[in-house]
Give the backbone structure.
Amino acid sequence: MSRLKTKIVAHRGASYLAPENTMHAFTLAEEIGAYGIETDVQLTKDNVPVLIHDVTVNRTTNKKGFVKNYTFSDIQTLDAGKWFSETYKEARIISLESFLQWIRPTHLYLHLELKNNRFSYKNLEFVVFDLLKRENMLERTALSTFNAKSIKRMTRIKDDIERALLLSKQRKRLIQFAKKYDLKALHVEYPMLNDEFVRLCEKENILLRVYTVNDRDDMQRCFALGVDTIFTDRPDVCIAEQNKFITEHDKEQS
């Protein structure tokens, strides 16, 4: 892994600056110059994939209830921005389809988390995959999940698409699991990061991506360890820190 080419991905968009998983946060991430966008997908009552992190709409909208109990037309009426700031009170939960139509002409890489670790949405993997294929986004997308059963279901998809396991703590036989299910990457929470783990992933040719890194010192440590990707709510700060890291590296080399 190159220590100078860590990719910077906007976690739920530029979610420190605008309401998460809304077009405001996504367009800001593009303007800032992020390498890619990470977002979350769930299914509505009528089986439409929508972008929202929590299994309920309680925290980020003006209503309450489970995402899975809303139809798409109903969920689109919710205010998904006022909780963040009055400026964004017209923000809406958007469909994966409309998001893909926006991101496709950009340079951005997509990290799509399947939110199926609490509710096992029926056929979520295949609904999402079919939409990515239709929108010609398979080569620019990585699918990730905390759900090992979901990873196993994805092996039934024969077309080549990048898959990754999300982790918040170590698990037994992790590398063996990754190799068995042909995982290209592991997405790990920052406290799991250490030099030994980085070198193990390097040795096994597994990309190591780290979430959610918002502290400047933590960013610098990720650059120094040479992780493949940082997921951050603050892509603007992370890009500035990376430029600083590269400048210092160049000074040391001269």
User: Anything to note?
Assistant: DSSP finds nine helices and nine strands in the chain. The mean pLDDT is 95.
